[in-house]
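From the shared-data thread, chain only:
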Amino acid sequence: MPEPTDRAEVLSRASGAIASSVGLSAILSPRLLLRAFGIAPNDVTGAAAFGWRLFGVRTLAVGASAYRGDEAARAAILPVQIADQAVFAHALRTGAVPRRSAALAMAVSGVLIVLDLLARGDR
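Structure, as tokens:
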């Protein structure tokens, strides 16, 4: 794995590390991850936990590959996070989850978007 040598590399690796952490958390314990976002464990059905694990697999795969320097994965971060923003905004607008939960999810995704845009600007 290459050492980060410039700002774009550091930003891309930071984005990959954050995405990998969120993805791994969603796989290992979706209820714990959702509790951190303000959703009570009792409100997470088996189907919802399975869905969050699928989200985790996608997020971990893209994040870990981006961290390792895979340019295709790095290019995928922005469109994936824009799609996530749309889902989280819909959840906020419809009340599908508590407002705080949707806002926190949008904030984490927003950090990944900002890191990615900054890295793209430096390439």
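The mean pLDDT is 92.
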